[in-house]
Amino acid sequence: MRQPDFRTPAVGITSIELEARLLRLWETSPGLKGFLTSVDHKQIGIRYIVTAFIFLALGGVEALVMRLQLAGPNLTLLTPAEYNQLFSTHGMTMIFLYAAPVLSGFSNYLWPLLLGSRDMAFPRLNALSYWIYLASGLFLYAGFLTGNGPNDGWFNYVPYASRDFNPGLNEDFYALGMVFLGISTTVGAANFIVTAFRTRAPGMSINRLPIMVWGTLTASVANLIVVPAVSLAFFMLWMDRQFGTQFFDPAGGGQPLLWQHLFWIFGHPWVYAIVLPAMGMVSDGLPVFCRRPLVGYSLVALSTVATMMLGFGVWVHHMFATGLPGLGLSFFSGASIVIVLPSAVAVFAWIATIRLGRPVITTAFLFFSSMILLFVIGGVSGFMTASVSVDWQLTDTYFVVAHLHYVLIGINVFPVVGATYFWFPKMTGRMLNERLGRWNFWTMFLGFNLAFLPMHLTGLLGMPRRVYTYNDYGGWHALNLITSIGAFVFAIGVLLLFVNVLRSLRNGAVAGKNPWDAPTLEWSVSSPPPPYNFAVIPTLASRHPLWEDRLGNAGIISTMDRGMLLDEGKETIATTALDAAPDMVLEMPEDSFAPLLLTLGLTVLFVALLLKVWLAVGLGAAIAALALLAWFWPRSELRERTPAHG
Fold this sequence. Notes:
Elements: E1 6-7, H1 15-26, H2 31-37, H3 41-70, H4 80-115, H5 123-145, H6 170-198, H7 211-243, H8 256-273, H9 276-290, H10 297-311, H11 326-338, H12 340-356, H13 363-385, H14 388-394, H15 398-428, H16 434-460, H17 477-507, H18 548-551, E2 563-564, E3 571-575, E4 582-587, H19 594-611, H20 614-632, E5 640-641
Antiparallel strand pairs: 1-2, 3-4, 4-5
């Protein structure tokens, strides 16, 4: 067992020799084999992002078809059954297949770079989470493309989801697909948690974590708790439909309301899981363009955790109209109002950062800063429905649809597009075009508000949700036409983003290490980063290692060129959870077919469960078992070594 020492590359080995050695250890094999076996967090992150944006485009097309149907009264573009499948699939796509996975993609790519590590804590688990995400998404869309897509909304309420009222394969596809997708979310969450606590660079104590890390860490802890709840609900529903277990059937002693409790105890924390990491993107990206650190870092970090903790106590505000006891309604109404406070902390911190800084107006800045306005609008409409009496009037109207989209698009899509402009140079080595980016921003911003701001009024005028058509009365026609026009303008804006990305990949201006003059670790390496991320594990002395000279903190010097080389194998550092003191050296796994084979086995298993081909169920289980055997088969050399402290 070797005691690794702290050396500069110039002592005993040249930088070129070190980088060549690390490249041989960490580089993924070329070709199809490398694509199928890679455990490189950067490749997995990009795959997540690209796949999520494809699902965003699919969900957007579905939305446009719905808006054509609703652009005027009594239109017949879609039948009621087609509309049910379309709006259910749209909701499923945007919430489960785009909103959370795209954040996982950015976090997968950026976390080791932000934390000063060479990879995630469990690289093969990381690859498994992506392959299962892709397979479950294809499974769910196979139902839609064969006319068996979900048709009970993304919330999937019983009793309509039960076999008596819904005898086709629609709900079986949805139930099994969501259990399948839950595996991806759960293993990914566990990986993020261990990575955050154990693979930070020396000196990156818990109070020096970027806010984006706080956001994804908080969301991951929540997902470990709530995803099993909704997976259990979907599995119980499938059991009811296939074997008559009657978990949700009152005739057999079941409770239909149990579905709503299990779903919304997941659903509301999930809302924060898909906005807190995006809010972290704003908290880390916005200060770069304001040329100053984030105002109130500690308060923002604490408010991130507090928001999620309170989020576990507000799920019943989705159920105010179900006839629950008044005392319970009062408690959850109060919690739904109180949760505004930690969210407001972040808003005021962003505004103060802009006010006290010297903003540089870039496309990324426009997307990040516009999110503040959209967040406030969405937050105020949500705050209104926290009141029981107000919610009773609004709960099944288009007012709630407006609120939902201001949250999911305003607080997710806009920060994600801003993050794309911000980190695209790091991922590709190319800059996105700023002129086209301005057109991209203003088209999306104006189209979004034109589409969804009138929905508040549509709802106040009484238009119900989930209707496929409406009569020519009530003052809804003009507002729906405006909404439909706005949706198409917004779609043009998203298309401009895709055009900008494709053009810039080939012809974009070359980006250096740090084109934005940003302060965090990912900007200390080349663009794009090498497979090993850092030739030498950095040691941090502050929260902003690349801004230490200008912030005037005497005696605070982070080191980027002196530290542990970790060049005797595919290795990274493990540090203590709170203070990030060097603890051990972790030997990382090589590329492997095991995650893909396990995914293939599980895919066979879930397809066989859908079709009730029990022999194939056994085959899928056998393939999964063999993949796990290969996964856990001991390697000839596996060491955990204690580092020497320099």
